[in-house]
């Protein structure tokens, strides 16, 4: 089994009737295997899209369809190890986030082994998002690719449009299933197979490999009298109990404290489809995707706790690289309804910034990331803050939280302001106006973030090891 270098993400999906404003919202932390893996935010034009795609990680290659759509993406800063496009919105206002690395079990892999030169996270956004016109169509395209080429890893793949959210999970090398998230529900996916009961008679809410039932029966994979995808294709291991399920437990505890009193971080029976006790906001999602078990004994930042000995993997931690929260709004014209809220580096210390996706180019400070540290760049200034903040958490978090509240308020203000300004613009002028608005938003966000970096560097530098105060001698 090849392990993806982006192998520890956390996903939250919110149906349109569960969100605060009627939007579909998909959000996913991209977490790398190392703390520093620079990312950039770009627009890929049809002329930039390859006609023939070749993976860098494997020998997988594919001829791509003609007439791709323009789309946004959050690829690695440099492409020598592949694109890793991760999350974006295309010109049809269809969003995709790929992938949530998930788990499986040896019996499944014995029956349908991973494919050495199949497709994987590195490839999926690039070979899918430019060619789909709905979330449902995204499921069908990826499903057909999995059936034909296979995959070398287990993944969860998210699609959304203004009406629907679909979550697809792979099963072995070639099999898969997908569920439409109910409009009034939310889902937290923490690197584990999540889909539970499949209703094979309900094509409105489930899609799957054409031979899925036959495959399970032939290989004696189902240990019960019902078809629970998680139980058949997933895992329940010690790693799950410490690395995966605690994240779902904490998120569900936040949204449904009344329903999780009897559950623990190691509970193996957490539900996939959940219903919050209130409407869910962007701020709720950011809190959970930044969380580190606050107000529990498992918080690595709790005074007196040795962070190397905490038993459970947090959601917000040093290996977060980017968070894309894609909001598709039903109450404004479709030509400016899609917003990709973006945050770079470790989520406990960053904040979301909104970008309209119907543009020809992204802001300079977000698209020009290189592997060289640059405090003018959005990824790097946030990475520098996260490094200082983690070692001085209790000294500077009050200032970080004030910055986060102020920047998020600014983001909401910008969205409302831009909505109003572009409402009457013609199609030819709209994209230019949105692009200029994004640039202004980005410049302000980077300026605020650099100011925070200056403040915390100034305040924490005086007491570092090696300092000397002559008055003490």
The count of helical stretches stands at 11
What is the CATH architecture term of the domain at 10-328? Answer: 4-Layer Sandwich
What is the fold named in CATH at topology level of the domain at 10-328? Penicillin V Acylase, Chain A
The helix/strand class is alpha+beta
Helix content: 25-40%
CATH class of the domain at 10-328: Alpha Beta
Order of strands, main sheet, comes to: 12-1-2-14-15-16
Largest sheet: 6 strands, antiparallel
Please report the distance between the alpha carbons of the first and last residues. 60 Å
Globally, the shape reads globular
Strand-residue proportion: 15-25%
Average the pLDDT over all residues and give the rounded result.
Answer: 96
**Chain oligomer state:** single chain
User: Which regions contain 5 or more consecutive residues with pLDDT less than 50?
Assistant: none
Task: Explain what this protein looks like in three dimensions.
There is one protein chain. The protein has 473 residues and is an alpha+beta fold. The chain has a domain at 10-328: Penicillin V Acylase, Chain A (4-Layer Sandwich), CATH 3.60.60. The protein contains eleven helices and 16 strands. It has helices at 106-111, 121-128, 135-149, 212-218, 229-233, 238-255, 282-289, 364-367, 378-391, 393-422, 427-461; strands at 10-14, 24-31, 42-44, 52-54, 61-63, 71-73, 87-89, 95-101, 155-160, 165-171, 175-180, 186-189, 206-208, 320-328, 338-344, 353-356. Strands 12-1-2-14-15-16 form a six-stranded antiparallel beta sheet. It has a six-stranded antiparallel beta sheet with strand order 7-8-9-10-11-13, covered by helices on one side. Strand 10 and strand 11 form a beta hairpin. Helix 10 packs antiparallel against helix 11. The chain starts with 9 loop residues before the first strand and ends in a 12-residue tail after the last helix. The mean pLDDT is 96. It catalyses: an L-aminoacyl-L-amino acid + H2O = 2 an L-alpha-amino acid. GO terms for molecular function: dipeptidase activity. Keywords: Dipeptidase, Hydrolase, Protease. It holds the Pfam family Peptidase_C69. Its EC number is 3.4.-.-.
């Amino acid at each position: 089994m090849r392990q993806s270098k982006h192998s520890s993400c956390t996903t939250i999906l919110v149906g349109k009737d569960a969100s605060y404003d009627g939007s579909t919202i998909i959000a996913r932390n991209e977490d790398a295997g190392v703390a520093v893996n620079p990312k950039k935010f770009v627009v890929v034009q049809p002329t930039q899209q390859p006609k023939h795609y070749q993976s860098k990680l494997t020998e997988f290659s594919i001829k791509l369809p003609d007439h791709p759509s323009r789309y946004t993406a959050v690829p690695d800063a440099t492409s020598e190890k592949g694109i890793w496009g991760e999350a974006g919105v295309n010109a049809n206002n269809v969003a995709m986030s790929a992938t949530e690395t998930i788990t499986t079990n040896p019996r499944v892999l014995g029956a349908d082994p991973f494919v050495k030169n199949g497709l994987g996270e590195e490839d999926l956004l690039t070979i899918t998002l430019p060619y789909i016109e709905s979330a449902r169509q995204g499921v069908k395209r990826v499903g057909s690719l999995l059936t034909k080429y296979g995959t070398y890893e287990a993944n969860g793949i998210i699609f959304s449009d203004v009406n629907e959210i679909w979550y697809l999970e792979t099963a072995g090398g070639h099999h898969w299933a997908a569920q439409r998230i109910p409009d009034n529900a939310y889902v937290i996916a923490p690197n584990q197979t999540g889909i539970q009961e499949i209703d094979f008679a309900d094509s409105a809410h489930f899609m799957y490999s054409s031979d899925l039932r036959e495959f399970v029966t032939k290989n004696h994979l189902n240990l019960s009298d019902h078809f629970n995808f998680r139980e058949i294709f997933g895992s329940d291991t010690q790693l799950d109990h410490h690395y995966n399920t605690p994240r779902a437990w904490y998120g569900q505890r936040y949204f449904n404290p009344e329903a999780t009193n009897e559950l623990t971080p190691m509970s193996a029976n957490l539900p996939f489809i959940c219903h919050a006790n209130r409407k869910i906001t962007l701020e709720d999602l950011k809190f959970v995707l930044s969380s580190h078990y606050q107000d529990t004994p498992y918080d690595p930042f709790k005074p007196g706790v040795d962070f190397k000995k905490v038993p459970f993997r947090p959601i917000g931690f040093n290996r977060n690289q980017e968070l894309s929260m894609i909001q598709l709004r039903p109450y404004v014209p479709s030509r400016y309804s899609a917003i990709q809220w973006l945050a770079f580096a470790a989520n406990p210390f960053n904040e979301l910034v909104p970008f309209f996706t119907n543009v020809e180019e992204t802001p300079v400070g977000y698209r020009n990331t290189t592997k060289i540290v640059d405090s003018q760049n959005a990824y790097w200034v946030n990475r520098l803050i996260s490094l200082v903040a983690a070692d001085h958490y209790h000294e500077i978090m009050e200032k970080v939280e004030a910055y986060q509240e102020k920047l998020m308020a600014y983001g909401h203000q910008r969205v409302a302001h831009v909505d109003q300004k572009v409402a009457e613009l013609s199609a030819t002028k709209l994209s230019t106006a949105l692009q200029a608005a994004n640039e202004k938003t980005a410049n302000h966000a980077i300026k605020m973030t650099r100011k925070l970096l200056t403040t915390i560097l100034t305040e924490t530098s005086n007491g570092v090891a090696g300092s000397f105060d002559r008055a003490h001698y």
